[in-house]
Amino acid sequence: MQRLSMLTRILLQPPIIGMAVLSSGIKELDDLLGGLKTGELVVFHGSAACHSVTETLCVRSQLPREDGGLDSPVVFIDGGNVFDPYLISETACLSGLKPEEALNNIWISRAFTSYQMVALITEKLPMFLDSTPSKIVVVADIAALFCDSSIGTLEAIKIFNRVILSLWKLARKQDIVLVASSLWSSSERKKRLEQFLFGRADIVAGFEETDLDLKIDLEKHPSKIPASVKIHLRTPTVQSLL
User: Fold this and answer.
1) Euclidean distance between CA atoms 114 and 202, whole angstroms
2) pLDDT tens per residue across span 1-49
3) 197 within 8 A of 143, measured Cβ to Cβ
4) Dihedral of the CA atoms 188, 151, 153, 146 (nearest 10)?
5) What kind and span of H or E run contains 136?
6) Which strands sit side by side in the sheet containing 213-220, from one edge to the other?
């Protein structure tokens, strides 16, 4: 939690102004990705910082477009029971929003089995988006439930691919930003599932943390070449804000 908190404080970087895309508010990350456009399936994977960034986007998306947001409520599908309301509240304060209002603008749905996740994404989510003016959907730790030993590997791959395809189509049909995270795991099945996820995604970025630095690797992008950026988590600027 300490690392996530420190990363949140870096979000005081100035937003990208005047763009009809979603800005993270982290200058180094926005320079690397160029902002997130609607119609894209974006995947962040690796250390816990990737989840911190996805929750940050849940807050940033509620800002006006001129401040780098989408002026939109959020749909958050939690596949790893990782949603952190305290991180949302802290980021809201740093972004000039009231924490309670920011939380009320996030529609949360949790899945506890892989089949619940399939039903949520392929059946309920499309219907919900037809009636709700949300421009962003976040799916947290998307592959976790498909690694359960109660489901065979081939079946897991089959239904996971169905989920990914549905998300890819939704991003385009609904013209939304669709962000999926996948937290690091030693599970070979999860690593295999991630390869299918990366193959379908428009943007893929990997996150790797040390005690002092966060390294972000841009692995896939429709218009940018692979590149890396390193964010120092303990700088004088950050320390002054603690």
Assistant:
1) 24
2) 333 433 444 344 444 443 458 999 999 999 999 999 999 999 999 999 9
3) yes
4) -50
5) strand 136-140
6) 106-110, 74-78, 136-140, 177-183, 41-46, 203-209, 213-220, 227-232
**Would you state the pLDDT for residue 20?**
58
Q: How far apart are CA 17 and CA 145, in angstroms?
A: 38
Global pTM exceeds 0.85: yes
Q: Which two tokens stand for residue 97?
A: 């929003």
pLDDT at 241 over 70: no
Element of type H or E holding 87: helix 85-94
Q: What is the rounded distance in angstroms from the CA atom of residue 63 to the CA atom of residue 149?
A: 41
Angle formed at CA 130 by CA 222 and CA 176, multiple of 5 degrees = 20
pLDDT of res. 9: 42
* Domains, in order of start, for the chain: 2-241 (3.40.50.300)
Dihedral over alpha carbons 83, 87, 91, 97 (to 10 degrees): 70
Task: Return the amino acid letter for 44.
Answer: F
Give the max Cα distance, the chain. 51
Quote the DSSP letter at residue 141. Answer: T
C-alpha dihedral (95, 99, 100, 103), degrees to nearest 10: 70
Residue reference for tokens 């489901």: 151
How many DSSP H helices and E strands does the chain contain? 10, 8
Mean pLDDT score, 88-105? 95
* Structure-block tokens of residue 204: 């893929």
